[in-house]
Amino acid sequence: MRLLVTLFVSFSLVFYLPASSAQITLGWLEPITIILDSQELSIQAKIDSGADHSSLHAASIKRFVKDNQAWVKFTTVNEFVIEAPIYREAKIKTKLVGFNARPVVLINICLAGIRRQIEVNLMDRAHFSKPFLIGRSALSGFVIDPNQTQLTEYVNCKKAQ
Length: 161
What we know:
161 residues; mainly beta; three-stranded antiparallel β-sheet; 1 helix; 12 strands; disordered N terminus
């Protein structure tokens, strides 16, 4: 009887595992690749489920108009230059100033072999330990273990979709 119960439980676990067990687990610090046309930049990102949105280090932010649309050009880590249309403006609450308007762009990233387009607001993150913060709006399908780091590897997402 005990063997029968063990077999039944094992069979049930194999076929009826919750969906979360199939999700990829991330630590609080993970490698991420920014994909821009034929260029890629691989950096470390802080995974922060406490932040609503993602934020990328941006220096020398220049706004301009291209094809009757607002664009932004900026430099991020390793002198990587990005030009992108401004998707929207974000009002970010700050401790000292009240609200701060930041441009938001859409960028393609590769995280744990999964390629997706996410919204990132641009700000000078030079005083932070990590240049890229990934907020919960970009983390669907992932489980976060805040006690771990580096649970994934850099993967070429040109082949992964």
